[in-house]
Amino acid sequence: MATDIARIKAALLTQHIETPSWAYGNSGTRFKVFARPGVPRTPQEKIADAAQVHRYTGIAPSVALHIPWDRVDDYGALAAYAAGHGLRIGAINANVFQDDDYMLGSVTNPDPAVRRKALDHLLECVDIMDATGSRDLKLWFADGTNYPGQDDVRARQDRLAEALAAVYGRLGGDQRMLLEYKLFEPAFYTTDVPDWGTAYAHCLKLGPKAQVVVDTGHHAPGTNIEFIVALLLREGRLGGFDFNSRFYADDDLMVGAADPFQLFRIMHEVVRGGGLDPAAGVAFMLDQCHNVEPKIPGQIRSVLNVQQATVKALLVDADALRAAQQSGDVLGANAVLMDAYDTDVRPLLADLRAEMGLDPDPMAAYAASGYAEKIETERVGGAQAGWGA
Amino acid sequence: MATDIARIKAALLTQHIETPSWAYGNSGTRFKVFARPGVPRTPQEKIADAAQVHRYTGIAPSVALHIPWDRVDDYGALAAYAAGHGLRIGAINANVFQDDDYMLGSVTNPDPAVRRKALDHLLECVDIMDATGSRDLKLWFADGTNYPGQDDVRARQDRLAEALAAVYGRLGGDQRMLLEYKLFEPAFYTTDVPDWGTAYAHCLKLGPKAQVVVDTGHHAPGTNIEFIVALLLREGRLGGFDFNSRFYADDDLMVGAADPFQLFRIMHEVVRGGGLDPAAGVAFMLDQCHNVEPKIPGQIRSVLNVQQATVKALLVDADALRAAQQSGDVLGANAVLMDAYDTDVRPLLADLRAEMGLDPDPMAAYAASGYAEKIETERVGGAQAGWGA
Amino acid sequence: MATDIARIKAALLTQHIETPSWAYGNSGTRFKVFARPGVPRTPQEKIADAAQVHRYTGIAPSVALHIPWDRVDDYGALAAYAAGHGLRIGAINANVFQDDDYMLGSVTNPDPAVRRKALDHLLECVDIMDATGSRDLKLWFADGTNYPGQDDVRARQDRLAEALAAVYGRLGGDQRMLLEYKLFEPAFYTTDVPDWGTAYAHCLKLGPKAQVVVDTGHHAPGTNIEFIVALLLREGRLGGFDFNSRFYADDDLMVGAADPFQLFRIMHEVVRGGGLDPAAGVAFMLDQCHNVEPKIPGQIRSVLNVQQATVKALLVDADALRAAQQSGDVLGANAVLMDAYDTDVRPLLADLRAEMGLDPDPMAAYAASGYAEKIETERVGGAQAGWGA
Amino acid sequence: MATDIARIKAALLTQHIETPSWAYGNSGTRFKVFARPGVPRTPQEKIADAAQVHRYTGIAPSVALHIPWDRVDDYGALAAYAAGHGLRIGAINANVFQDDDYMLGSVTNPDPAVRRKALDHLLECVDIMDATGSRDLKLWFADGTNYPGQDDVRARQDRLAEALAAVYGRLGGDQRMLLEYKLFEPAFYTTDVPDWGTAYAHCLKLGPKAQVVVDTGHHAPGTNIEFIVALLLREGRLGGFDFNSRFYADDDLMVGAADPFQLFRIMHEVVRGGGLDPAAGVAFMLDQCHNVEPKIPGQIRSVLNVQQATVKALLVDADALRAAQQSGDVLGANAVLMDAYDTDVRPLLADLRAEMGLDPDPMAAYAASGYAEKIETERVGGAQAGWGA
Fold first, then answer.
1. What is the CATH number of the domain that holds A95?
2. Per its UniProt record, what Gene3D superfamilies does this chain match (chains A, B, C, D) (predicted)?
3. Residues in B touching A249 (Cβ below 8 Å)
């Protein structure tokens, strides 16, 4: 048992959870974006906030950028700035949905000039990867249609394939393309990459550096997400996660807040499929917005939630599970899983943090640090960052 | 048969479809609001646009206002302006979701000062009804919570009931309160009025002037909307519709665009339950946004879609239907309904328009009118209207 | 804290969870019902099995009957038989869906002769209540239609109201009618009691002895069940629960198996709304089928799952929660709830069982008892019970 | 225009719609299977009924078999019997879900002996294809799990892949394997082939004779089925359809009954993607059950509904549509589609039937034929066919 705990702690230390720069800015719904005091005005301030999350959790050493929201003149300098805060630059997220030209699509637009503009932006993102040392280009397309007949579904796939091929060809040897899918929104009738199958089919044709990203909020009701995770791991095509949670649509709530048991089941499949091994290349990223709660504590809590689900998954007695499964013992196999889930892992995680030289209670430690009050005082004037238009 | 057609045409002439002022402004999703040339800058320009819809359809003689988006100094003058364009002011829509104070709710907010502010706004809306001669106060609350535990579900109902009672007490003798429900968004975990049952329970306690509004886009997947319509008509509590359509969430697409058969079934229950009789007081209102299509033609098409579904519902052979239902003839009863639905009613509607002195093809007539080009030229400068924050 | 634990244990001892006689029979899907050795052939054998669940959990002292599946000549004798096994007869469940006459409905059938037959069955169930001392008549209607137009939605409501009124008038002073709703299945287009609003509207008209039953598996995707629970408690109309769980449709899985966090949130609203007080009259009933797992252990596990969620709900620090809610501390309020949920309550429950003179591990104790082997040996020949046609 | 009509009629004549033998037997839900007079007792009687559908529609010249439901001693004789009725044998449907051994899965069962038994059944189905001249083996697996942990998700994929490969290797040169997917039911937690992506991934590895079948009732809410159709046609992997319709789950209602506009959009993508060309190999099959309506008229109506959607899709003005799409005219492009949909195509289809020497009104002609009365009189005694266990 002592060995087990040591093994589990060692495994936990290999897991890194990336926070997104946009989580630190203002966000909201189409109805209203609520402004918060202390919200960053610059990419640098976002990085400083992300560093706080790493400081108290010890497992969030990278921050994802979003272009053009995080556009700067000197990306090398930005990476150095991050390094000075103990962080590295994570995935580069392309944005081809917030220009009036993209009303009817970006890389799938019927107008070739718009497609060219969108492709140029994607290629610019690879330049930024070169400059920042980022490994992953994360692609999410808002492209789709709102009305039946609005555009040709199949022609849009052809255009998408052409753009992806051009970007893939531009990738360096250690760089990857992570293709994300989403059921709906902002497109309402068709979405050009609506499900894992579509993303997978494109990745297959592109090559091994193209991988699928599972955003936990992007599925139809009733979809078994952990099944998809298991399948993509089996196919060697799980590039990573965009973690968040939802009750109904793509609500971008804190991961684990809506259905902690689902998050545990997902992490169980990750562990089962070898996805926790850093060599598997699975990127654990958050993609959330904090509309009504403060942003930095919201990120800390989210990182802790992923870690909590991971340790519960590591606690599953794999031998007992396999034995029960093999013998057709439905209740017994389920009980093995539930035993791990029902365990209160907070003491174990507090121990681990103490061993890492961290405060056992990251939420309390951050609250006591005075950082929130400091940025509220200092960050006055300027335009607050937001992921909205 | 000739008599039937005459009866149907007479019934159609009693149906008025109200367009919303906000449909003429810019709108979009949380990802992006796309700007359009020619979009109104003032409530007056919105009314002028609404008048175009009535001009070509002949059945859209009122326009709903949204406060504060349509706030003016002199509401009597605004009503006169509308009258000068052949329109009257329809429902007054309260907005208690776009102020930073409302982040955690308006009338259900835990803070009594915020609740008071929200209530004052609702009462102001009744003042505007007095000044404009509007009959209906339409209430939709964005109130709810994003996280389990965030607030006390039951206390919020108490606060809601208190505010509704205060507003109800302020209504004049001919004024009504229309209470709308919505499954989710912008609140993600609980919504304080999430379903027709909640709206109905509150209306029952308030009195006969409180009625439920069915927004066709506000239900969970799999919900049978026409059943709710039939039930509310049976209870005498169907105040009206907010028409739109959707494929997944509250997409605000043109009514009838996503599922024209559903719209027909809804209108069938309206006809069956006596809701087409003006004495029933059912308000047929559009509540849509045109994100990627032009606004005025989008409204014209929507009005025509409701009319088309209505005429099909009127074509149902009620005697044959009843006979088949009574005899347990499942296929026969279904066939009676489908016969009406499968009929091409466009010739009948073109005839009706000719008799009304209108162009038989409203979409073509509007396109040929030059109005779109005119407003694109004239409406330069100023701030375009939009329903977003 | 010691006081708290004592209070919690006392509260837990007042909670009784009723198991359904049909859970002990064979069940399945429309595709296949799998037969199990040892399954009961008679109502008496079902009661004997239910007694096992009470024996090991100590909190399941009643068993619900289903008529006609549990039809016997002498109901008084059956109640005495149950008493001899330490049980009382719980709710009487009417069944008006398994006769060829009911193909197009029972109490809502267009044919008055079929309606009369169905009503007679409901009245027979009240006779059985009289004979067995049962308090609750549980009504679930499979009635509805499969195709648009098949029957008149509104007329079916009239017929339903008429039947309910006749049954209500027959109830004794201490008897109640529990009306259940269900979104869909076996009817596919309309269901005559599809949602809590419809059940509530009928109960209101009937009187205080008519109460709504929440079956946790009977809602549309995205429905917030705990909100409905809170609302019905506020209205004094929550008659009880039919517990089970599901991933997609009405899957009748073990309660708490699909979403234990949801079950906790439901129990939190029960506790918050005073529903755990026996005086509130909330019946905690299981309504499940065990298709691929053994039946008695499936019931034991389900009872334990409800108890586990209840104790977690009792652990919520109500004062801290209220304070955080009042101050608008979104993350703090959520954390209070999650602290209770994340607690491992198995030791506390093991203690409680020891104090009750029970084995701390009911699943293991039942497995070791030899009862399963005994019934497999003894129950040979005869027709196994099943809830199917 | 005359040319267009001629072209459309010619295209319609190439479309064959296959009816399933099980549609003629009794069916129902897990709650009840209602018995009907006149229902077939043998495969031969089912074929005779299927011949009626072809007789009145002229476009249903084949009938699918279901093994073991349609097991006979001499399949060659059965094919000859069908030929004598003007029919050929269509797809062979394997059934590995109705044996007690399959409780925990068939080809994915943890027990290798059960897997072997299931595989043997699949290979037997290929033997039957050889004997009957059938081209297509349709595989739908009920395999999955009900509870988290019950079995190893990934290992089940390995077992599935192994079985599929064995069957694929046994196929003759002109034979195909059609792999069907289904979101849920009868498995409730995981389904081993839950979506098109999973089916597609397996087909890719097997080879060109493995194709995906789209059952229109097997998707999560909000899924855009026509998008999947367009995608699979683009990939050359659309093997065919199992047509039916539903409001909520896999309801097996008559195709086009729940959402005729969706069926039209599906057929629009079929036409757009070349799937109507017989060379494309897309099999148009019905997979429905008639629970509350008579079976033969239910099939006739379903065949007509597919034909009606097809002719509307053929009426779409492809040039006008492309022009509107290319110019970004959202409303215009949508209007082109709606113009075709709003057309009353019943006169055109009546003409076509007259030209084919058929009665213009197949439903009325069948009703007048006396066949229903005849089989009710003749088919007395014996065991009625049913798709249930």
1. 3.20.20.150
2. Divalent-metal-dependent TIM barrel enzymes
3. 184-185, 248-249
